[in-house]
Amino acid sequence: MMETSNRGRGKNKRYWTYEEDAVLIRYLHELSCDPKWKCDNGFKNGYMNKLEEMINGVLPNCGLRAVPHIESRIKNWSEKYSAFAEMLSTSGFGWDAEQKLLQVDKAVYDEWVKTHKKAKGLYGVPFVHYETLAEIYAKDKATGDVSESFVDAIEGIDQEIDKQPLIVESDEEDDVNSTNSDTYSSTSQSGKRPVKIEDDHITPSKMAKSLCRNDDDDLVASLHDVSNNFGKIFENINVNLGTMASAWSKAEEREQRMDEKVNKVLDEVMKLDGISPSKALEVATILMAEEHKLRIFYQAPFNMKKQYAIDLLKKK
Questions:
Q1: Per the confidence metrics, is the pTM higher than 0.90?
Q2: φ and ψ at 198, to 5 degrees?
Q3: Cβ atoms of residues 312 and 283 within 8 Å
Q4: Are 29 and 196 within 8 A, CB to CB?
Q5: Is the dihedral of CA 248, 254, 257, 259 positive or negative?
Q6: Which residues of 234-251 are buried (b: 16+ CB within 10 A; e: fewer)?
Q7: pLDDT at 208
Q8: The organism sits in which domain of life (predicted)?
Q9: Residue-wise DSSP of the chain
């Protein structure tokens, strides 16, 4: 785990490793395909705690917590995705799928940044998770279309934080790196007694809406997943059929070249005086089986080809 030791609000930066990023985006994508956790306006309440559980299952010593680590990382990705998607929905901006970065003239980008501050610093910087986030938020990654539900998803991250009871230490020090948002009765690493502060402005109706427990929505989400899976299956079938067709075509070309090569060798051997058709076939078989002998036969002067063929028959 890579992490600074500065304490205090805004100072406890977490430097994520490549492996931690890869695990987080994988499980975030997994939850986005699960109707138990995904709803129309983002994710259901508690999904960050679920991510914490899943990540620590494969990286037990990483020390990652739902708050502040996972919450901060997802919010950072969401804001960056929003900035990229907005640019990609505008004429003049393109996407390099291989290098995972913007394709745009620097002058166009500089002009854009003047009125879109969130896009600052993104020129020439790869964003490897853009396409995965586009799938997570069900957006058109080719055009970068940002619909209302994506804005809701970003706001949902803030709502998720608001719904978590805030743990502070008794001396009012506000470093929350050791906070476990799943178990609110646990103590911090320093052994100080945590104090639970409930956010009492949340009404039952708000909580009911945030849960998204609508059977129809779950059914639609399930059917959507099935449709996507069928689409991927047919896509793979088309790719495989194309590969097989290409392989067959290449095999036919090789067979045709081989036939032409055999005919050419037979023609050359049949030109030799005193070589019967059956012997010519034997000589051709030897020459086709050993490439270096075939080269010698072709490069030898015509008056030496007959003797070479006779010698091959003797050594057979």
A1: no
A2: -85, 140
A3: yes
A4: no
A5: negative
A6: eeeeeeeeeeeeeeeeee
A7: 45
A8: Eukaryota
A9: -EE----STTT--EE--HHHHHHHHHHHHHHHT-TTTEETTEE-TTHHHHHHHHHHHH-TTS---IIIIIHHHHHHHHHHHHHHHHHHTSTT-EEETTTTEEE--HHHHHHHHTT-GGGTT-TT---TTHHHHHHHTT--TTTT---HHHHHHHHHHHHHHHTSPEEEETT-----TT--SS-TTPPPTT-PPEEEE--TT--HHHHHHHHT--HHHHHHHHHHHHHHHHHHHHHHHHHHHHHHHHHHHHHHHHHHHHHHHHHHHHHHHHTSTT--HHHHHHHHHHHHH-HHHHHHHHHS-HHHHHHHHHHHHHH-
**Per-residue tokens: 47:** 């999904």
Radius of gyration of the chain from its Cα atoms, rounded to whole angstroms:
34
Q: How many Cβ atoms sit within 10 Å of the Cβ of residue 272?
A: 17
The stretches in the chain having pLDDT less than 50 are 1-9, 139-155, 157-212
pLDDT score at 173: 33
**Model confidence pLDDT, tens digit, residues 279-313:** 888 888 888 888 888 888 888 887 788 888 888 88
Specify whether the CB–CB gap between 139 and 81 falls below 8 A: no
Domain chopping of the chain, boundaries? 2-209, 224-315
Q: 194 forms bridges with which residues in the sheet?
A: 169
- The whole-number pLDDT of residue 198 equals 41
